[in-house]
Amino acid sequence: MQNLDQFLELFNPLPGNHYLQVTTEVDEITDALVHLLEKVGGEFSLALYDEKEQNISAQCPNAKIQYIKNFKQPFRAIPRDNDMVILKDIFHLHENQKMILKIAYTTLANTANIIIMQKKGTMDIEAMKTMLEEFEFRAPNSIDVLPNYDLVIAKKMHMWGNGL
Predict the structure, then answer these.
(1) How many angstroms separate the CA atoms of 46 and 65, rounded?
(2) To the nearest whole number, what is the mean pLDDT of the chain?
(3) What CATH number should be reported for the domain holding residue 97?
(4) pTM
């Protein structure tokens, strides 16, 4: 298990916050996010790209879980419902990356963050920053807090670009 202390410092959940993780597997990062939100009475949602549904309700007992069968389909999310979207190991695999960014933008509340995580060496960080800027995410930054992952974080800003 990797040390997640620095990674968890990126988050400052408040009571009632909603986080959405879109990923291919439930792992220690998912567990850490679930526990972080449980401490403040927040809500954790999980969109899992997997062909077969897994019984993960024991690991995420209070999470809202959706299964997506393939990388052609989008995940579902309510507009302006999330304070953080974490895309982990799915972005480079998805057939419609622009749609994924548009859904993430729409579901984020104003001044909320998006984090894109990929295994080291699978993401062109500068191209990702540029793409985030094109989709009206602001201040994209690369942060090196996990030894096995490249991570880019950006913010949805109120009244910029796509507006609300």
Answers:
(1) 5
(2) 91
(3) 3.40.50.150
(4) 0.92
